[in-house]
UniProtKB/TrEMBL annotation:
<comment type="similarity">
    <text>Belongs to the class-I aminoacyl-tRNA synthetase family. TyrS type 1 subfamily.</text>
</comment>
<keyword id="KW-0436">Ligase</keyword>
<feature type="binding site">
    <location>
        <position position="191"/>
    </location>
    <ligand>
        <name>L-tyrosine</name>
    </ligand>
</feature>
<feature type="short sequence motif" description="'HIGH' region">
    <location>
        <begin position="59"/>
        <end position="68"/>
    </location>
</feature>
<feature type="binding site">
    <location>
        <position position="254"/>
    </location>
    <ligand>
        <name>ATP</name>
    </ligand>
</feature>
<keyword id="KW-0963">Cytoplasm</keyword>
<keyword id="KW-0648">Protein biosynthesis</keyword>
<dbReference type="InterPro" id="IPR036986">
    <property type="entry name" value="S4_RNA-bd_sf"/>
</dbReference>
<keyword id="KW-0694">RNA-binding</keyword>
<dbReference type="InterPro" id="IPR014729">
    <property type="entry name" value="Rossmann-like_a/b/a_fold"/>
</dbReference>
<dbReference type="Pfam" id="PF00579">
    <property type="entry name" value="tRNA-synt_1b"/>
</dbReference>
<keyword id="KW-0067">ATP-binding</keyword>
<comment type="function">
    <text>Catalyzes the attachment of tyrosine to tRNA(Tyr) in a two-step reaction: tyrosine is first activated by ATP to form Tyr-AMP and then transferred to the acceptor end of tRNA(Tyr).</text>
</comment>
<feature type="binding site">
    <location>
        <position position="54"/>
    </location>
    <ligand>
        <name>L-tyrosine</name>
    </ligand>
</feature>
<comment type="subunit">
    <text>Homodimer.</text>
</comment>
<feature type="binding site">
    <location>
        <position position="195"/>
    </location>
    <ligand>
        <name>L-tyrosine</name>
    </ligand>
</feature>
<dbReference type="InterPro" id="IPR024107">
    <property type="entry name" value="Tyr-tRNA-ligase_bac_1"/>
</dbReference>
Length: 426
């Protein structure tokens, strides 16, 4: 992989590097291979070089499912590399329903059902993102805040005139519905305009320069980019993650029993763990890169396991994916119920670090290095920022010195929810 240009702000560079090396990046609107356009936009925002990006989720159900996890993990990596994620809940657009690549219209939901579903979605994101203050603190917004107040005729005049029916009919999601002679209502036809307007509003309100989503959202994302350029003269960007299928061709997250939901009240942590434990052999390495935060070196080791030993990798995948979704305690309980060995007496994942013997007695690995080795930070730069911001702790004590070292076994924490037990060997 080519060296990243020094002109890209480090936090944006770290994020884009993670997406590439772990397999998240499918399409990107930035014409430059080095993504320098996104970098320039970052420098021009009030965030001082940090990247603000969003993903939208309509409240069509009370939980998200495994099929959404790629976008959720992209938001998590965005925050872990010092950038700001925005979760957009589609309280307004849910009233229409995204027609993309659907054969029929979505059921119409009333306002009470949409509000209840939105509450369920918020519980999912609380597990994956930190909504605290600070430049990287995640935001959760609802597009009903601006869509509900739109006046129809002024909206058509100011926004609708930038969309041609010719182009809209050319999008795959629309063309396929029409080729199959399946009805597409005028209500649904407006969905792509409203999603484009969401991007424009988030740019204006929060300095958001990047929209992410699955590859089925590419046309809608491009609409938002074009709208911002025409209306505000603003350069916005989009990228998509691949639509995943298992090695046998099954759509990711679908089972004989239905969708694999992320909320515990829709699918138990044990059943969630079992879903990952049953991963096909050929998918283990890819899923470890996408759905866990394990270091790539450890993933490479697990990928090399063959025969019956591949079960070790599947147990690690299941436990790590469940830890992110339901917490360490639930992950360890699910692993124990599934016959897997516990990570340790305290239920925390164990990370073994080798002390550099050449450095002499009492020496150890720096906390920044330990954060990277444990998968709690994506890079040393991100780890040092975490330390400066007071987010790193050893045995519950904040680490304030970027040069501090780990000289003995300890619990290393990043933020309030992520912990590992470090084992330091000679």
């Amino acid at each position: 992989m080519a060296t990243r240009p020094t002109t890209i702000p480090s936090s944006a560079a770290d994020f884009l590097h993670v997406l590439r090396e772990r397999g998240f990046l499918h399409q990107c609107s930035d014409p430059a291979d080095d993504l320098s356009g996104i970098a320039a936009a970052c420098r021009n925002t009030a965030a001082g070089g940090a990247l603000t990006a969003y993903v939208g989720f309509d409240a069509t159900a009370g939980s998200l499912h495994v099929g959404h996890l790629l976008s959720i993990m992209a938001l998590r990596w965005l925050q872990r590399t010092g950038n700001r994620p925005i979760v957009l809940i589609g309280g307004g657009t849910t009233r229409i329903g995204d027609p993309s690549f659907r054969d029929t219209s979505r059921p119409m939901l009333d306002d009470d059902r949409i509000a209840a579903n939105a509450a369920g979605l918020r519980g999912v994101f609380a597990q994956y993102l930190d909504f605290g203050s600070g430049p990287a603190g995640a935001l959760m917004v609802d597009n009903a805040d601006w869509l509900d107040g739109l006046a129809y005729v002024p909206f058509l005049r100011d926004i609708g005139r930038h969309f041609t029916v010719n182009r809209m009919l050319g999008f795959d999601s629309v063309r396929q519905r029409m080729e199959r002679e399946q009805p597409l209502t005028f209500l649904e036809f407006n969905y792509m305009i409203l999603q484009a307007y969401d991007f424009l509003e988030l740019s204006r309100r929060h300095g958001c320069v990047l929209q992410m989503g699955g590859s089925d959202q590419w046309g809608n994302i491009v609409n938002g980019i074009e709208l911002a350029r025409r209306v505000d003269g603003t350069a916005l960007f989009g990228l998509t993650t691949p639509l995943l299928a298992t090695a046998s061709g099954t759509k990711m997250g679908k089972t004989a029993g239905g969708a694999v939901w992320l909320n515990a009240d829709a699918r138990s942590p044990f059943d969630f763990w079992q879903f990952w434990r049953n991963t096909e052999d050929a998918d283990v390495g890819r899923f470890l890169r996408l759905f866990t935060e394990l270091p790539l070196g450890e993933i490479a080791r697990l990928e090399r396991l063959g025969g019956a030993e591949i079960n070790e990798a599947k147990i690690v995948l299941a436990t790590e994916a469940t830890r992110l979704c339901h917490g360490a305690a639930e992950a360890e309980r699910a692993a124990a119920a599934g016959g897997a060995p516990l990570a340790g007496g305290d239920g925390l994942p164990r990370v073994v670090l080798a002390r550099d013997g050449a450095a002499g007695p009492g020496s150890g690995v720096t906390v920044a290095e330990a954060l990277v080795a444990a998968g709690l930070s994506a890079s040393k730069g991100a780890a040092r920022r975490l330390i400066r911001e007071g987010g790193a702790r050893l045995d519950g004590v904040p680490v304030t010195d970027e040069a501090a070292v780990v000289t003995a076994d300890a619990v290393l924490s990043a933020g309030r929810k992520r912990h590992v037990r470090l084992v330091v060997t000679a």
